[in-house]
What does this fold into?
Amino acid sequence: MKNSKGQLEIFGIAVIFLLFIFGLMIFIKLSSTKEENLAFNFMLEQMPSRLLQTMTETTTACQKKNIGALILDVASSQSGSDNAGRCTYTDNQIICDTVTQTKSKSELETVVKQIFENSLKIDKISYEFEIKMKDGCQIYTEKNPADGCSKAGKISAETFTLQSLKGKVDIVLKVC
Amino acid sequence: MKKAQIQLMESTVVMFVFFIMIMIGLTVYSSHQNTRLEKIERQMAEQRAIETAKKIISLPELECSNNNAKTMDCIEIQKLEPFKQRISQNILYYKKDFGDTKATIKMVYAPALPQTVQKPAFFLNADKQTLFDFKSGGTSQKTFYFPVSLWDKRFVSEWSYFGWLKIEVFT
It folds into this structure.
């Protein structure tokens, strides 16, 4: 009888000890919950749609057409794709500068590059940007850093679709 | 030692251990509550920063409109200089509205202008200009970046430049 009472007490202590450890584990788990960065998340969610909207409306030096119109012109002049999946083009693009013979594809690349370099890139915001024919070849692509958003925890993305003479064009921006 | 004394000591030790455990529990709970309150406070500060940023990007003083139709995420370049002057004349009003905030605007891309046309007055000296700076202390800083169209209404139809609005909110 005496022996079983001692066993019961030890069992009681073990239960109390387990409860204590259990409580401590819950506390550690609760206090280590990663805090959400509301301000950054807000900006991240807003960024892709705002940036695509603003960018497609931007007036370029190419006959004062906006970037959206340049994308449509480039997409309408694509004739197929190379081995790497990039689009190939006919000569039917808008000529932006008669002296230098700059075409819309070249102008588009210059402007888009300048926009990204002086906005997202300079402020160290990671992104992936792509212009491609729907289920087809790639017109333009850019990532910062080189692996884009592949390692990012949170990604915010937006796709704008335009209708060109050669089919739909997707403009995709992922910010992370 | 008598059996009664041993039992009394045993009870005292049990009470002591129980008391210690309650104390530990209370300490842990209060420290958790403090952390939670600090977290709520930080989140509220972030919410305030978001509200301020939202207010600035939709300022009616700068909005673009065509035949009374407003355009989203757009600032009329010609309204920037008068707005800056207006702020300098009504600092208290705007500071009360925006709090400890600084707004900077950068013209990221604009096509080459015709030779007879000057750069917009607001960006005449540099492509990056401070719209207002109400910073007066504040330890924590939240930075927001927003792409905005900068409408130049000197042309018909208006030219749209790519702008980059940086809003820093200090709390």
